[in-house]
Design goal:
57% helix; 359 residues; two-stranded parallel ribbon; 1% strand; elongated; mainly alpha; 15 helices
Length: 359
């Protein structure tokens, strides 16, 4: 994440910290400001006058604000406060900037992929999209705080992140790292997710995400903060255990964010025995105790929790049929009582009203 942080430092944070925490000689007056803006910095020798680039592939030129703060870029407190604000990692524990990424991908999916006929499903909640966005908007900034120690460790060099392909343990590792990362995280997320369904923690931590029986793409990040953080831990732990290329790291986190949106979009493209796509995840939201995996069905099969998606889901005529919905609701209500007890969701008359309008 040092690459991302350098970008934000150059274009945003250098100026911000120069204003909030100016260097002593700069704070003394205009003369100090003019001196600091020059290349000599004779009165500021205790502060750095150059920073090494986090990557050999490009270099961002420092601005006049780069060396004007009492909190230089490598200051621990500055990094601690900057990472929740500027880190663009896009997993389920996205930073404040991750809110923007969340809205972009979720909105694109909502507008161009999500089947709006889902609004007429009997288990679609009243004002559901608004509630999903509200939950995600509350959760994401809090999750940002929880993940700060991981990212501070990364930018301070404690992780096994490497820059150039030549720095890999061996050349083939540059390719192997992708399936290795997905397999590692898929395994641990399966068990964390399954653990969140334990009766002692489900209602407090995981039920907020299961509020959405028929989720929209905006439900992708609508978690309890501790739930979202818990499921993100494997992503953050991986580069402290195994080597990972810095660019690959950013690509993988972008992929995770997109994947998380897509498995909530209700577009059942992948009818695969091995891919945990939107159809598998819909079965999870409908029937609770199945399909805990993130990317594959491998660990669900191993753990005995795999449930094959209904064949009706892959044909629009049948997946949106009254008969299929009645079958889903009957089983869902039975399982919901077993898992949660009384159903406190507010379905209202939203589905009935929309059924008349759309159908």
């Amino acid at each position: 994440m040092d690459i991302v942080l350098e970008i934000f430092d150059t274009f945003l944070f250098d100026r911000l910290y120069a204003s909030v925490f100016p260097a002593l000689s700069i704070a003394n007056g205009k003369e100090g400001v003019q001196s600091a803006a020059t290349s000599t910095f004779s009165s500021m020798r205790e502060f750095p006058t150059a920073y090494p680039s986090p990557t050999q592939f490009w270099t961002l030129e420092p601005t006049k604000y780069t060396f004007m703060s009492a909190w230089p870029r490598d200051n621990l407190w500055r990094q601690t406060f900057s990472l929740p604000l500027g880190d663009s990692s896009t997993d389920s524990s996205s930073r404040l900037f991750g809110l923007v990424v969340y809205f972009i991908f979720a909105s694109l999916s909502y507008l161009f992929i999500f089947d709006h006929a889902t609004f007429t499903h009997p288990k679609y909640l009243k004002n559901q999209v608004r509630l999903e966005i509200k939950q995600a908007s509350i959760a994401l900034p809090i999750m940002a705080i929880f993940t700060v120690p991981f990212f501070v460790g990364e930018v301070r060099g404690y992780a096994k992140l490497y820059d150039a392909p030549a720095d890999a343990p061996f050349w083939l590792y540059n390719l192997i790292q992708f399936p290795l990362f997905l397999t590692f995280t898929d395994f641990f997320i399966y068990w964390i997710h399954r653990g969140l369904h334990h009766p002692r923690v489900y209602k407090t931590l995981h039920k907020p995400h299961h509020k959405w029986i028929m989720p929209t793409p905006y439900a992708s990040h609508a978690f309890h903060p501790l739930d979202g953080f818990a499921q993100s831990v494997p992503y953050h732990v991986f580069p402290f255990i195994l080597p990972l290329n810095k660019i690959a790291y950013v690509i993988l986190f972008a992929f995770i964010n997109i994947w998380t949106v897509f498995i909530h979009d209700g577009e059942y493209v992948a009818n695969s025995k091995f891919i945990n796509g939107a159809a598998c995840h819909t079965m999870h939201h409908l029937y609770f105790n199945y399909n805990y995996g993130q990317f594959t069905t491998l660990w669900d099969r191993f753990g005995g929790s795999y449930r094959k998606p209904n064949e009706e889901l892959f044909k629009r005529e049948s997946k949106m049929s009254k008969q299929e919905w009645e079958k889903q609701c009957k089983e869902m209500e039975m399982l919901q009582r077993e898992v949660e007890g009384d159903d406190d969701r507010n379905y209202g008359d939203e589905a009935k009203r929309l059924q008349k309008k759309v159908l």
